[in-house]
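Sample intake sheet
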Amino acid sequence: MSIEGIIQRIQKDAAAEAERIRQEFASQVAELDRAFQTQTDAALQKAEQEAAAERENAKRRAVEHEKLVQSQRLLAKKLDIINSLFISVREKIENLPDDEYRSLFADVLAKLGEPEGTIIVAADAEILDNRFLELATDRIKSQSGKEPNISLRSTTGNWRGFYLDRGKMRYNATLDALMASVREKTEEMIIERLFGKST
């Protein structure tokens, strides 16, 4: 065989081998391409599902946040109403006629159940005066049947109501203390009556 024939034979064999390799790899490339497309489709589908879920979660969080904001606003409004109510009650007490004011605090003193001590007054010194002391003494006497031994002393200060000083013990019957006690005992009931049980 001539050199030219050998070269043609090698070229022919090389071309056949190249075609075989191309077909073999073409099949593998097609398989890889199909696998890649399948994975890409699955990844896209998963990404779309995650995006939809995230949008839903974001929407839910936004709704929950808005509900919380509205709930806080409602609670603040309710507290404003309750505070206004107790401020109004306090103003009514402060503006009672002197005789009714004396009577109210005489009842408070009598309910303390203490037959002796010193009543200390400040801003109310002109109202919670000797007439108040007599009234309170009469009420304590009618409750206990005993003569009380209570004195009255005024001091400087801007608090209203009184303190009952018994040496080591001092009762706080100031208007601030009375309002705090009234609020503690009645606030829950008032809230329920005004707004229902879901507060």
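Comment: The beta strands are 116-121, 149-154, 161-165, 170-174. The two ends are 107 Å apart (CA to CA).
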